[in-house]
């Protein structure tokens, strides 16, 4: 029961008889004062609990408005709820409330039961829904809760299936149902269901069925949110404090295991790059919990909270292009039909706006402007979303939650917020073996693997053809925002992904395992936040059982990507090729391919071996989406147009088996059977026309300086850049025009920019195992050190520049130094 309000306490004091006051002993006065203070505190706390419940209800139902996006979302909500309502079977003898949810061994049916009841509860509790306040629907939801408690989900049951459904999926939905139905449930019913949540989520920091296992990352915050909402529902100060305190561990940058790293990486399951899946879940739960608790007695006061704003810039922003999250960090989620790079981007937008709601102004403004820029550039959304204009049928603008729609409406209406442009730059995520190049007109990212980061993750029947998704897969995001959307992952040839050197081999899946590379030389260097090298010394043995191996590097230089490969060998009787491109085309597959000035046939099924190829050009599906390809070695290029068919069930066992189709064009450099020292080079020129591509091929302004077992190196004279990967230990020297230029004493990635009067240098140890130093010498003389990273010792400036880099425990980090040159 609620304690007395402050006014009631005052009235009690006024009613005391003056003569009685004189007879009160001091101890009695003190006891009464303490009792009254406690009653007042209880009154304040009850009010706080109610406020928290109201806040969570707001996150579930949004703010009433006539905005077309809200009306469309409400209609869809009611449609789905009504569909489930019509099919529900509340008979006590039924094995499941719905015919397709009757398994007694698959724990996902627990989550699915509560998810459907949650839809029904939201439809009847949300103002504006055509089912709002429907008494029969409310009664059936309550009866559904009772059925679940009696038959499927209550304290003391023997578990089966995936732990996640018992400890996160089911209680997460149940807690929201209890919020929506709070006034319709009796105190005894609320107590019963809250006890169920307490049984399966007693500790947000520990695995319930394995208490010795500490929860981390997304799972920990999911549980913290469940406990926090449960605390509000049951008026439990202890549960709310526990939810708040569980947050702190996730806010710190980690150096191993799950969580965010200082370089922007995010890892879940110990060795999987997961920014765009578990990272999103983590941010989603954290943003919801912070919004729930802000300004309350249980608001977090951890100084590490500022890291969350840093994540938005360092971890998430580089991996999003115009509101779409790159698939290279989505892991198993790429196999889910309902999940796409664009839906992942929408999830991030919602989370960032929730963060901004409680953030200081200095942090809130850039978050909102970032989201506004993505929103307005996204072809599925656009500048007219959330402005009151009529919606197109099935508009993505209505795919946000009801609460997010309210926030987005405010964002669009705020004319003081300018949409932030895409931010150019280059970044190596050394802790998760990913790299990205960002340009005003495109983004390019790479998926690599090592002995630290797995080639793939499969499990729960998801991601059933994943072998090559982490072995050098490249993704180019440009004005064609549908390139990786739709049915891409169900139709693309998963044995011939762009960027990979492949023999199309596959093997039995290793679920939940660390699928190691045979080499630890994976990563690269970044310079001035603008340029980077990413390198992969790979062996496919642990991934597909193949003996294929090779050394691959990508030089991410401004408006171009230079790809270089060498030492490619295989003992298998499988043809080896390097896939330059495998691009999803427009719906008719008619994108024009031009090779050396000649347009090639456009009919599906066409293929050709194009010898002595200097350049190729693929017309984009949208203006600004053209791509040029230049081949410095003038190799034979195998071109292929396909209309490919596939099914989502082939990559996720729970999906439907219907056939989907898409058109593709691939370009590949063949290496033949059992190569021993094959190599390749190509340059990708995003956004270039055929004429511009031909002009670049005629005067490329780049040189391949080394392509051997020991070294991969190039020069781009237009930018004054030299990038070199020293692949073996022992002192090695890189020559330029027959003269020594750069040497390294050990394995290293070195990136150098030279201008008329300055020399900038970046050095990294991609192996992450060097416990000492790397000595680098440049055949230039300098007059001064202009800037220097900690860890670099400049040994001399002339007659050559020599420096020593302490890379012990650097975790692949780049060390930068800048000199004034002697001329």
UniProtKB/TrEMBL annotation:
Sequence ranges assigned to domain Polysaccharide lyase family 8 central in this UniProt record: 427-688
GO biological process, one term: carbohydrate metabolic process
Keyword Lyase: yes
SUPFAM superfamilies: Chondroitin AC/alginate lyase (SSF48230), Galactose mutarotase-like (SSF74650), Hyaluronate lyase-like, C-terminal domain (SSF49863)
Chain ranges of the Polysaccharide lyase family 8 C-terminal domain: 703-771
InterPro entries hit by this protein: Chondroitin_lyas, Gal_mutarotase_sf_dom, GH-type_carb-bd, Lyase_8, Lyase_8-like_C, Lyase_8_alpha_N, Lyase_8_C, Lyase_8_central_dom
Domain Polysaccharide lyase 8 N-terminal alpha-helical: 56-372
Domain of life of the organism encoding this protein: Bacteria
Protein family: Belongs to the polysaccharide lyase 8 family.
GO molecular function: carbohydrate binding; carbon-oxygen lyase activity, acting on polysaccharides
The protein's name: Hyaluronate lyase
Active site as annotated: 269, 278, 332
A GO term from the CC aspect: extracellular region
Taxonomic lineage from the root: Bacteria, Pseudomonadati, Pseudomonadota, Betaproteobacteria, Burkholderiales
């Amino acid at each position: 029961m609620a304690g007395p309000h402050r006014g009631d306490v005052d009235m009690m004091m006024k009613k005391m008889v003056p003569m009685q006051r004189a007879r009160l002993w001091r101890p009695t006065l003190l006891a009464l004062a303490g009792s009254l203070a406690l009653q007042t505190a209880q009154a304040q706390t009850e009010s706080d609990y109610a406020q928290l419940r109201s806040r969570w209800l707001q996150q579930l139902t949004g703010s009433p408005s006539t905005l077309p996006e809200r009306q469309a979302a409400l209609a869809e909500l009611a449609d789905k709820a009504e569909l489930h309502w019509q099919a529900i079977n509340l008979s006590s003898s039924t094995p499941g409330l719905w015919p397709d949810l009757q398994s007694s061994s698959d724990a996902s049916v627990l989550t699915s039961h509560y998810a459907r009841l949650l839809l029904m509860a939201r439809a009847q509790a949300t103002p504006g829904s055509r089912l709002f306040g429907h008494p029969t629907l409310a009664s059936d939801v309550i009866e559904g809760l009772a059925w679940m408690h009696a038959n499927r989900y209550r304290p003391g049951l023997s578990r089966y299936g995936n732990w996640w459904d018992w400890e996160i999926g089911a209680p997460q939905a149940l807690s929201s149902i209890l919020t929506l139905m709070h006034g319709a449930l009796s105190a005894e019913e609320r107590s019963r269901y809250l006890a169920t949540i307490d049984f399966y989520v007693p500790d947000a920091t520990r695995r319930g069925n394995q208490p010795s296992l500490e929860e981390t990352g997304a799972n920990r915050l999911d549980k913290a949110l469940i406990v926090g909402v449960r605390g509000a529902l049951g008026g439990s100060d202890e549960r709310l404090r526990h939810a708040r305190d569980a947050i702190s561990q996730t806010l710190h940058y980690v150096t191993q295991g799950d969580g965010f790293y200082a370089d922007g990486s995010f890892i879940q399951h110990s060795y999987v790059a997961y920014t765009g899946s578990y990272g999103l879940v983590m941010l989603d739960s954290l943003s919801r919990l912070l919004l729930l608790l802000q300004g309350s007695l249980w608001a977090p006061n951890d100084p590490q909270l500022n890291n969350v704003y840093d994540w938005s810039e360092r971890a998430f922003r580089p991996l999003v292009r115009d509101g779409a999250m790159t698939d290279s960090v989505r892991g198993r989620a790429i196999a889910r039909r309902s999940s796409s790079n664009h839906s992942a981007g929408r999830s991030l937008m919602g989370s960032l706006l929730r963060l901004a709601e409680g953030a200081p102004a200095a942090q809130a403004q850039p978050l909102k402007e970032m989201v506004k820029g993505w929103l307005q550039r996204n072809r599925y959304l656009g500048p007219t979303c959330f402005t009151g204009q009529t919606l197109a049928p099935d508009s993505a603008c209505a795919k946000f939650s009801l609460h997010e729609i309210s926030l987005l409406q405010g964002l669009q209406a705020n004319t003081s917020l300018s949409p932030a442009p895409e931010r150019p730059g280059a970044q190596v995520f050394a802790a998760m073996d990913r790299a990205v190049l960002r340009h005003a007109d495109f983004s390019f990212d790479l998926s690599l693997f090592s002995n630290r980061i797995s080639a793939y993750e499969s499990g729960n029947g998801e991601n059933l053809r994943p072998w090559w998704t982490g072995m050098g897969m490249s993704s180019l995001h440009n004005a064609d925002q549908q390139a990786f959307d739709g049915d891409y992952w169900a139709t693309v040839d998963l044995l011939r992904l762009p960027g990979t050197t492949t023999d199309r081999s596959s093997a039995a899946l290793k679920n939940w395992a660390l699928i190691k590379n045979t080499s630890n030389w994976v990563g690269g260097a970044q310079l001035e936040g603008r340029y980077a090298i990413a390198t992969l010394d790979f062996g496919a043995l642990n991934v597909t059982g193949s003996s294929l191996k090779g050394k691959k590097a990508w030089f991410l230089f401004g408006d171009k990507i230079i790809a270089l490969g060498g030492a490619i060998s295989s003992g298998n009787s499988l043809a080896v090729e390097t896939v330059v491109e495998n691009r999803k085309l427009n719906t008719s597959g008619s994108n024009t391919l031009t090779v050396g000035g000649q347009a090639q046939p456009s009919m599906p099924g066409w293929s050709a071996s194009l010898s002595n190829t200097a350049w190729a050009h693929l017309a984009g599906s949208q203006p600004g989406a053209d791509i040029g390809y230049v081949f410095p070695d003038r190799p034979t290029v195998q071109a292929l147009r396909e209309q490919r068919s596939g099914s989502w069930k082939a990559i996720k066992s729970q999906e439907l088996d219907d056939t989907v189709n898409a058109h593709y064009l691939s370009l590949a450099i063949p290496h033949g059977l059992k190569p021993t020292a094959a190599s390749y080079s190509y340059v990708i020129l995003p956004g270039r026309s055929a004429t511009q591509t031909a002009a670049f091929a005629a005067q490329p302004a780049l040189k391949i300086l080394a392509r051997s077992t020991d070294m991969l190196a190039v020069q781009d004279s237009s930018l004054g850049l030299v990038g070199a990967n020293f692949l073996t230990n022992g002192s090695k020297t890189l020559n330029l025009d027959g003269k020594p230029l750069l040497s390294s004493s050990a394995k290293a990635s070195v990136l150098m920019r030279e201008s008329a009067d300055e020399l900038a240098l970046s050095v990294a140890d991609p192996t992450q195992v060097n416990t000492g130093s790397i000595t680098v010498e440049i055949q230039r003389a300098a007059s001064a050190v202009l800037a220097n990273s900690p860890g670099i010792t400049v040994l001399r400036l002339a007659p050559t520049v020599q420096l020593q880099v302490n890379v012990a425990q650097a975790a692949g980090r780049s060390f930068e130094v800048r000199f004034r040159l002697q001329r």
